[in-house]
Design brief:
Blueprint (H helix, E strand, L loop, with lengths): L2 H17 L8 H11 L2 H12 L8 H16 L3 E14 L4 E7 L3 E3 L1 E3 L11 E8 L2 H6 L9 E4 L11 H5 L1 H4 L1 H7 L4 E5 L25 E4 L1 H14 L5 E6 L2 E15 L9 E6 L9 H20 L7 E6 L7 H10 L6 E4 L7 E6 L6 H11 L5 E6 L7 H5 L3 E7 L4 H4 L12 H18 L23
Parallel strand pairs: 5-6, 6-7, 7-8, 11-12, 11-13, 13-16, 14-15
Antiparallel strand pairs: 1-10, 2-3, 2-9, 4-8, 5-9, 10-12, 14-16
Helix pairs in contact: 2-10, 2-15, 3-10, 10-15, 12-15
């Protein structure tokens, strides 16, 4: 017998002595550290859904394929009680025509996309004088009827911010600007995209029209084109600036969307679960890697890593809400369907894939010991604790409706609004090192929460009966 055969024989004799010895489970801290170093789950999810499904406009066949893909992924990864819970929604689609052209005094094309819920122009478009508003407040101050027969243009001065706070500052130009313009008689509106990049990629996003105001054609110009338009106003020296706008979106009525759910089962089913949320839909113009494929990837990966450290005390439920972009249909539907099923705590990931830098909760004062425990546990990942009261993500309506516990794991939003709602929201923008840091932080936090015997909000005994929600 030669030496290699002897070595193999020795190995085969050694195997029975160790084959039945179970490997010790990692601690929660070790699981979180492993997630930071080697997590395969988050990338597998976001790479898969962006490659195999792509854009997932709410209420369309593409979103249905995205939900089916997510259901199959959860089942393959061993999640329990996986389901696609359907609901009906009013569905808007963008059409295939989006054109804007300055016709005077400096004729040239501009890059534009329709805003969600925009009306269509007549075939061939509309052409009208443009009225420049520096801010949405300036638009609000315009006299009633002063925009009759005209197109409004609304600007803003959004800047990058780690906490994304400038979105709240600039966002009203999109959120309410079109409705205000319509109420003052405008035949259309274009806005400076709500974003911070300088690519010729317009940022779409939803808008709304108040009761009594008829929807008008509403578009977003890329930031470079919007700034070019503003220079035209400066050079026009009192001459009217005219614009031809052509858009053909439409409302197609009620279609079906759904919420994808799955669970890591806890040891004590009597305890309310920990709810991890994201949204499965995206706009039509990108595969939604940052918004919100990465968010769904982070929450499912964290749930898997917590289970590696042992079965948690509480069930961990993941909620991939449908139709978030077009009006929080999924979040509202989930709350309506499950309002009398108490949730222990809610957390959402919907701000890209860059690192978590701050932890906030709404129980800093009511359960300070737990807040401090979590803050200390995530410090090693470079996460500070803030003084803000957590308000939860858009898809956590059920927790807010129940007045329950919330955690915010704040991600670095410095570059988020370069990509948000643009064709640039693609997989190559995700930094896998930062993605894994998210999974590690989430694993640590979710693991702590899922093993709490007492109320997460108060630190006291867990109520034995579900809350009665008035008006639900």
């Amino acid at each position: 017998m030669n030496k290699p055969i002897l070595a193999l024989a020795a190995l085969s004799l050694a195997v029975p002595a160790t084959a039945n010895t179970p490997s010790p489970r990692p601690t929660l801290e070790q699981a979180a550290d492993n997630a930071r170093d080697i997590d395969p789950h988050a990338w597998d999810f976001v790479e898969g859904i962006t490659t195999e499904v792509g854009p997932r406009q709410a209420g369309t066949e593409a979103e249905a394929r995205g939900r089916a893909w997510a259901v199959a992924w959860l089942k393959a990864k061993g999640f329990a009680n996986v389901a696609d819970e359907p609901f009906m929604m009013d569905t808007w689609v963008p059409g295939d025509i989006a054109r804007a052209r300055v016709t005077g005094p400096f004729a040239q094309d501009l890059e534009v996309l329709p805003l969600g819920n925009s009306a269509a122009t007549p075939a061939g478009g509309i052409e009208a004088e443009v009225v420049f508003f520096r801010t949405v407040d300036d638009l609000r101050a315009a006299p009633e009827g002063s925009l009759k027969g005209k197109i409004a243009y609304v600007s803003h001065q959004m800047r990058p911010a780690q906490d994304g706070s400038h979105y709240g500052f600039a966002g009203p130009a999109r959120w309410v600007g079109p409705g205000i313009a319509a109420s003052k008689g405008a035949v259309g509106i274009v806005i400076k995209s709500i974003g911070t990049d300088h690519h010729r990629n317009p940022h779409t996003g939803g808008t709304s029209f108040p009761q009594g105001a008829k929807a008008i054609p509403s578009g977003a110009l890329s930031l470079p084109d919007a700034e070019n338009l503003e220079r035209m106003f400066a050079r026009a020296a009192g001459r009217p600036v005219t614009l031809k706008l052509e858009l053909n979106p439409r409302q197609i009525g009620q279609t079906q969307s759904g919420n994808v759910v799955g669970e890591i089962l806890g040891r004590n089913p009597a305890l309310p679960p920990v709810l991890l949320a994201c949204h499965i839909d995206s706009w039509w113009n990108a595969p939604g890697a940052f918004d919100d494929g990465a968010g769904c990837a982070i929450i499912v990966a964290a749930a898997k890593w917590v289970s590696v450290s042992g079965q948690p005390l509480r069930t961990i439920r993941v909620l991939m809400a449908g139709a978030e972009e077009t009006g929080l249909w999924g979040s509202k539907a989930y709350s309506a369907a499950h309002i009398n099923e108490p949730i222990a705590v809610g957390i959402e990931s919907d701000f890209g894939a860059d690192r978590v830098w701050r932890f906030d909760s709404n129980f800093r004062e009511t359960n300070p010991a737990l807040h401090k425990t979590i803050a200390a546990a995530v410090a090693r990942f470079g996460v500070s604790t803030g003084n803000d009261v957590a308000t939860g993500g858009a898809d956590l309506n059920i927790v807010r409706d129940q007045k329950g516990a919330l955690v915010d794991l704040q991600q670095d939003g410095t570059r988020y609004f370069d990509l948000h709602h643009t064709p640039d929201d693609t997989l190559d923008k995700i930094d896998i090192v930062q993605l894994r840091q998210n999974v590690a932080v989430w694993t640590q936090v979710v693991g702590i929460l899922a093993n709490q015997e007492t109320s997460i909000l108060t630190g006291g005994p867990v109520p034995t009966a579900p809350p009665i929600m008035q008006g639900k």
